[in-house]
């Protein structure tokens, strides 16, 4: 008889049990999707700052949802009320879930009290992108800046977040820095909490 | 027995209100939910014991009225879940469990890319999941 003494073969592919699947998405699929996102926005705008703003808005929506999801899943339902707390949350947990590793470094700005910087040797979204010379200082990391802004805004820390290239000596590709500038009320609240 | 659950947004705007009784006093339940928002704000802004309870999400029993008990829960994005129940001997652990599952359903509803944050939650899946959670709570607490 067919099937006796052998492993069970499914005659119909529809009867196979669905596998749980991996928790990761392939890098090439994401890079393809992101390049399509950038190209789509490029055909709809007239100038660079508009393009940057659109990418940032797209990231903002992602950030708001990521915050809800991560707080429920990973952090055991604790709320962040301190500045350093939310920054280290973004720097480690959010980065780990989105990009598979923690960010390279988190620094406090020296000129102003309200500036913080997260830097990364090479942002995952920028890995397959090279900016043409006539686009000036445009950085597709504006998408990641939007994600960070979405997370901070949702948690109650309004901020202006931008992405910049910082040329490093001895390396061909410049380092990317996400600059976070908190609003005035955040600093006042932080000072009040002591 | 749970009579009403509500999700209230950051600016105290209602995102989802659902009552589970057959009686027609929906308006009274909405009014109770609205009054409990004040208690939530008071708890958040003036913590009785600063430190351990400053970041807790489960706020506990907000206030008991004549025949209802109101429980509150605050998420990381200042979104509040309010639960109105008529049970007199409901256990703390049951309510925490309920809020955990409710939070799960809420996160799934918000992850929808077509959901605009700040607008009402219109997903039917969310409504079904909430009514399932309420039903299982009813069965577990009466057993």
TrEMBL record, chain A:
It comes from the Eukaryota. GO terms for cellular component: endoplasmic reticulum; TRAPPI protein complex; TRAPPII protein complex; TRAPPIII protein complex. The keyword Nucleotide-binding does not apply. GO terms for biological process: endoplasmic reticulum to Golgi vesicle-mediated transport. It is found in: Endoplasmic reticulum; Golgi apparatus, cis-Golgi network. Keywords: Endoplasmic reticulum, ER-Golgi transport, Golgi apparatus, Transport. Coiled coil: none annotated. Part of the multisubunit TRAPP (transport protein particle) complex. Belongs to the TRAPP small subunits family. BET3 subfamily. This is Trafficking protein particle complex subunit. It comes from Dillenia turbinata.
From TrEMBL, chain B:
SUPFAM superfamilies: SNARE-like (SSF64356). Keywords: Endoplasmic reticulum, ER-Golgi transport, Golgi apparatus, Transport. It is found in: Endoplasmic reticulum; Golgi apparatus, cis-Golgi network; Golgi apparatus. The keyword Transport applies. GO terms for cellular component: endoplasmic reticulum; Golgi apparatus; TRAPP complex. It comes from the Eukaryota. The keyword Ubl conjugation does not apply. Its main location: endoplasmic reticulum. It holds the Pfam family Sedlin_N. GO terms for biological process: endoplasmic reticulum to Golgi vesicle-mediated transport. InterPro entries: Longin-like_dom_sf, Sedlin, TRAPPC, TRAPPC2L. Gene3D superfamilies: 3.30.450.70. Part of the multisubunit transport protein particle (TRAPP) complex. Belongs to the TRAPP small subunits family. Sedlin subfamily. This is Trafficking protein particle complex subunit. It comes from Dillenia turbinata.
């Amino acid at each position: 008889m067919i099937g006796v003494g052998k492993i069970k073969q499914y005659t119909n592919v529809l009867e196979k049990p669905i596998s749980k699947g991996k928790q990761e998405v392939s890098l090439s699929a994401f890079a393809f999707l992101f390049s399509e996102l950038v190209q789509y926005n490029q055909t709809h705008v007239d100038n660079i700052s508009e393009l940057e703003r659109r990418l940032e808005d797209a990231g903002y929506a992602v950030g708001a949802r990521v915050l809800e999801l991560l707080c429920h899943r990973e952090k055991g339902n604790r709320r962040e009320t301190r500045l350093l707390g939310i920054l280290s949350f973004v720097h480690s947990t959010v980065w780990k879930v989105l990009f598979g590793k923690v960010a390279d470094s988190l620094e406090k700005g020296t000129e102003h009290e309200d500036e913080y910087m997260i830097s990364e040797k090479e942002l995952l979204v920028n890995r397959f992108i090279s900016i043409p010379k006539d686009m000036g200082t445009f950085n597709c990391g504006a998408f990641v800046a939007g994600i960070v802004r979405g997370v901070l805004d949702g948690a109650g820390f309004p901020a202006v977040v931008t992405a910049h290239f910082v040329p490093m000596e001895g390396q061909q590709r410049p380092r990317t820095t996400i600059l976070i500038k908190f609003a005035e009320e955040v600093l006042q609240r932080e000072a009040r909490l002591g | 027995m749970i009579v009403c659950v509500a999700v209230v947004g950051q600016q105290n705007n209602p995102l989802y209100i659902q009552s589970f009784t057959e009686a027609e006093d929906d308006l009274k339940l909405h009014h109770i939910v609205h009054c409990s928002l004040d208690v939530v704000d008071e708890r958040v802004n003036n913590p009785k014991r600063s430190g351990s309870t400053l970041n807790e999400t489960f706020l506990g029993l907000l206030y008991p009225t004549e025949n209802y008990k109101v429980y509150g829960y605050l998420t990381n994005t200042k979104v509040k879940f309010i639960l109105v129940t008529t049970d007199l001997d409901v256990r703390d652990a049951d309510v925490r469990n309920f809020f955990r599952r409710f939070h799960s359903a809420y996160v799934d509803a918000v992850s929808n890319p077509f959901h605009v944050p700040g607008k009402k939650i219109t997903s039917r899946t969310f409504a079904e999941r909430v009514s399932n959670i309420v039903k299982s709570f009813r069965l577990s607490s009466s057993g």
